[in-house]
């Protein structure tokens, strides 16, 4: 009797396991629905292609899917992840190695849901959790641009370096179910058209949260819109600290006006800061090409995001007496830094950024301050003209201890409160980063 009961129990458990396995197989292999299932060919209407090119600028597709001197959108860029390196794919309309065989529905599923034809899941380095908010009209325009505005390039894709079994794609379907929304952007009736346009760009094509929102244990963005306090609250990424875009006066945009945000995104600089790090690529390839109305919308939306006084601390104000010339690092600052940034730390606004009150000198995260001192800054290319001024690299001129001392001096002078920098942190970044290129890097869309 006991044997029969045991056998029956095992049978039911086996059946339950088979059902669960079947449901899992169905879930991870299912194709997301697309509103374009009945549309196959891309329109070659010039106005639609032009709009798609603009959406590609908003989305900064070229930054990941192109390499300097190579065919636009032919892929190949290596991107480091905690699991191993992956490479951006060829998204030209080449039939064999690109996306030339994609229908509009295939394209939609890849862009907004991270699912390639055949059900293959894309790694979320592709920001489809943000692109999910793209409107149907923008997806249709983007498809028209890639099919008719981009030249096909026969360039085979490079396999990822993620080892087995971590390279299996089916678990990404479960990740998507937990962390990747599927709904397009829904306008907030309580807000005006300008705010909603800004929210759409920031949350959707601009995918600002990919860099500026902290991530959870599963590498998911902790919030995807203004309903979550971590949204755009600042995050450490690839050796840089992407600062808060909320109204934090020290570590965010609290001291910036809407026109100053527009100026920064349009020209790469304002009286508070100059673009550097990963933001240089975003400026060179994307934000400077945005329409003025869209930049104003972004500024309006960002200025509506409240800061967190508990996280940000007492608002910064300039303090002359705190610049101690006898402290460690003061001599290095006077001889290496002051000619551009001033003995008073105020810089030459809009050209040489101030270090007094700089985000990198106020945030507890010291990665950006270390990285730019070690490696210098990439050239800003505004309206096709490379910037004459750039931060030089000091990795060959200064030791880890000297860099730590001068940054500690900067981060404790003029009212700055970022705190001391450890030479070990400098050594760690020195070993994992490379000097910024002194040559202008221009990626073409056509």
TrEMBL record:
Which InterPro entries did the record assign? Answer: Cyt_c-like_dom, Cyt_c-like_dom_sf, Cytochrome_c-type_DH, Membr-bd_ADH_cyt_c
Q: Which Pfam families match?
A: Cytochrom_C
For this protein, the record's PROSITE patterns field holds:
CYTC
Q: Its Gene Ontology molecular function terms?
A: electron transfer activity; heme binding; iron ion binding; oxidoreductase activity, acting on CH-OH group of donors
Keywords, ordered alphabetically: Cell membrane, Heme, Iron, Membrane, Metal-binding, Repeat, Signal
Span-the-membrane segments of this chain are none
| Required cofactor names | heme c
Keyword Heme on this protein? yes
Q: Tell me how the cofactor is bound.
A: Binds 3 heme c groups covalently per subunit.
Q: What is this protein called?
A: Cytochrome c
Q: Which organism is it from?
A: Pseudomonas fluorescens
Read off the lineage from the record. Bacteria, Pseudomonadati, Pseudomonadota, Gammaproteobacteria, Pseudomonadales
